[in-house]
Structure formats: C-alpha cells, structure tokens
Amino acid sequence: MDALTMAGREAGVNRLIQNELPKALFFHCASHKLNLVINDLNEVSEIRNTIGVIKQTINFFRESVLRRKLVPNIPMLCETSWSAKYKSIRIFSQHYVAIVEALEELASMESTSNAATRQRAHILNCATTSSSFIVCLHIVAKYSARLEPVTNVLQSVSMDIHSVHDHITELQNIFGGHRTNAEEQFSDIMKTASEAADHLNVLISVPRQVSRQAHRQNYRIQSPEEILPRGNICAILGLAYCFFGSPLL
After folding, report:
1. How far apart are CA 177 and CA 45, in angstroms?
2. How many structural domains are present in the chain?
3. CA distances (Å), origin 113, targets 57, 117, 118
4. Domain around 20
C-alpha cells in the first residue's frame, strides 16, 4: 500500500486500526515518511499544477506510438511509486526543450484528421511554456534529483543503514544551507530556467497581480527574481529541512 492509504486520517489503515485499538501506535517506514513530506508540497498550488502538467504531457505522448517517436522515452509519472516519479521528473526536465518543440510541431499540424491532437498539443504547449511552469519545473527537478537516490536506497532489498545515515546527514546540511542562502539558490535556478526559456523564445514574466488575492501568491514585485524570498522554493526547502531535521533511522 502507498503511504497515503496507510496514514489516512479518515479512512486509512492507521485510522481503522486505531478505531479498534485506540492505544496502538503508528510509525511510518523511512521511505513512506519521506514521501508524505514531499506530498505536502501539493499544498503549494504552483508546484501542484506543475506536476499535473508534467503528468498530462507524458501521458499525451505515451498514448500514441507515433507521438512517442517525437520525444525521448519518458516513464509514466506514478503517484504511488516515488522512485519512478522522481525519475519521470528528471527525464522530463532533461528533455524539456525537445518536448516543447514536439508539442509545437503537433499543434501546427495541418491534417484535419488530427484536430483533437492539435487542440491537446496546443493546450499543453501553452501550459508548458508559461513562466510559472518553467521556473517551478526547474525548482522541482533540482530537488527531486537530490531526493531520488535516498528513495531508491530506502526501497532497496539490502540497505546499508550507516551509508544511508551519512547520505541523509549530507542532505540535511545541503538543504539547510540552501534554505539560508535561498536567494543565491534561486538565482542559479532562474539562470537555468531563463536559458531554457530563451531557447524557446519565451519571456519569463512577473505573475499577474491584483489589488486583493485570497487563493494564490500575490507579491508586489517588479521582476521575476524578486519573488524568491517569498516564493515556492522556500516551501520546498522548509518541508525538506523539517523532514531531514527529524529522526529518520
């Protein structure tokens, strides 16, 4: 079972057992604990939307043999297999430019028999070239790459606890340092994101601002870089640092 099924507060296995045995204690395995913490990133709307667009784009290309030939082979983004999820995000990020170019090609096809394909390709092309998506993709890819080895080791048949402990301690120091120097880290991410955007002739712009906003971030900024100290990267680093700062093994 996946971590959410086990830990669900309303209908999870944890709740069902505690209904019968109120004094029973529930503990996650280390891998499930990591997955639950990362799953909390879905509370950040931009991150949640980015993951959703990645998943839809991968599914779009995998649905057709002809479309598969246009992009590198990308495994399905499985919500319950975190090692596979990290791998999908990593490969998608590595081939992001090629994927967008393939979407542009499909969206401009003149064959009337592929009207539905053109429409979906156009929608996904618009979604994958938005400023928010490009920046969030590089944020997620950067830290997924850090977490992927940990997940793989925690799920391995033979696990060297000492090596895992050393690796997690190193990650704790890395995330703590990134959290302290968030502006510097975001500058590096923005540089990479801007290079990808320039290659696609996309301009990374400031998110839309309104006088009052209750359901999304609405920072008073003049340039995309200024959003960092109050933006999505802080949420990722905060959750990751809280996780690695707590007992794991």
Report:
1. 25
2. 1
3. 21, 9, 10
4. 3-204+223-244
Tokens of 132: 């928010």
Taking each helix axis from N to C end, the angle separating 182-199 and 232-244, rounded to the nearest 10 degrees, works out to 130
Is residue 25, in this structure, part of any structural domain at all? yes
Is the distance from CB of 124 to CB of 53 less than 8 angstroms? yes
State the chain's maximal CA–CA distance in angstroms.
Answer: 66
Q: Which two tokens stand for residue 25?
A: 């204690």
DSSP for 14-28, please give it.
HHHHHHH-TT-----
Contact 70, 61 (CB under 8 A): yes
Q: Is residue 51 part of a domain?
A: yes
Those residues whose C-beta lies under 8 Å from the C-beta of residue 125, and which sit 6 or more positions away, are 100, 103, 104, 107
Q: Is residue 214 part of a domain?
A: no
Residue position matching structure tokens 């990374």:
204
**For the segment 187-226, what is each residue's pLDDT rounded down to a tens digit?**
888 888 889 989 888 887 766 666 666 555 555 555 555 5
